[in-house]
Specification:
NmrA-like; Rossmann fold; globular; 9 strands; NmrA-like_oxidored; about 230 residues
Length: about 230
């Protein structure tokens, strides 16, 4: 039996669904679903922090690409969480980075994980590092294990302009970017020890249609995305 919170219902497996008004007729059965909508054979990806602005961007993009997505959220009943409900191929589950059992439940059956950490905290913060290591440990512990994890952290830029500060992501003289974040190095080392490939994605924003901003990724001659080593050893 599920429990209701803020207009949503939490099932026994942690799945979050919209609470259905008992006075309304039930929705149509699955017999009307087009066969092309079947995603049972597509990869399943977990996105932690799915109800943040950045997390929602990732979930919507993956949904549009035909992937199955486990949108892991900590806070239920928010408008952002409700926006995730009903997206094609998206299952919303409750998970807290400090609750190991909920992390394992969210990661069950996933081949990859995306984690949006608390970038609003100071870079190299204990809070952000703990979030990342807890999720990473769960990736290695779930059966079968999740072998690939993308750690997405975004620079808090609200105070940069206000106090005339410079970005912490500073390029070298030759134009390359090597942000020296101790916390990221620790997560990278932990990933290697546990057999999980960790990719750190650091940008100041995700795609923002309202302000016509987007992240541009360059492709090399082999058609693969060009990246630089991003954590100093």
């Amino acid at each position: 039996m599920g429990r209701g919170i803020g207009g949503v219902t939490i099932k026994e497996d942690g799945t979050v669904e919209k609470a259905w008004d008992p006075f309304l007729p039930r929705p149509p059965s699955m017999k009307d679903v087009n066969a092309s909508d079947d995603r049972s054979t597509s990869d399943q990806v977990a996105v932690f922090g799915a109800n943040t602005k950045e997390g929602m961007t990732l979930v919507k993009m993956m949904s549009e690409k035909g992937l199955r997505v486990i949108a892991a959220v900590r806070v239920l009943g928010s408008n952002k969480t409700k926006q995730l409900l009903g997206l094609p191929g998206v299952t919303v589950k409750q998970a807290d980075s400090n609750d190991r059992a909920s992390l394992l439940t969210a990661l069950n059956g996933c081949s990859r994980a995306f984690a949006v950490t608390s970038y609003w905290e100071k870079f190299e913060s204990v809070i952000e590092e703990t979030m990342a290591t807890n999720i990473l440990d769960a990736c290695a512990s779930v059966s079968p294990p999740v072998k690939n994890m993308v750690l997405a952290t975004f620079e808090e830029i609200s105070n940069l302009k206000k106090f005339n500060r410079k970005s912490q992501i500073v390029p070298t003289r030759d134009g390359k970017i090597y942000p020296d974040f101790t916390g990221k190095s620790k997560v990278d080392a932990m990933g290697k020890s546990k057999g999980v490939t960790v990719t750190h994605m650091m940008t100041s924003f995700m795609d923002d249609k309202d302000h016509k901003k987007s992240v541009i990724l360059l492709r090399g001659m082999n058609k693969r995305i060009v990246v630089n080593s991003h954590v100093n050893k």
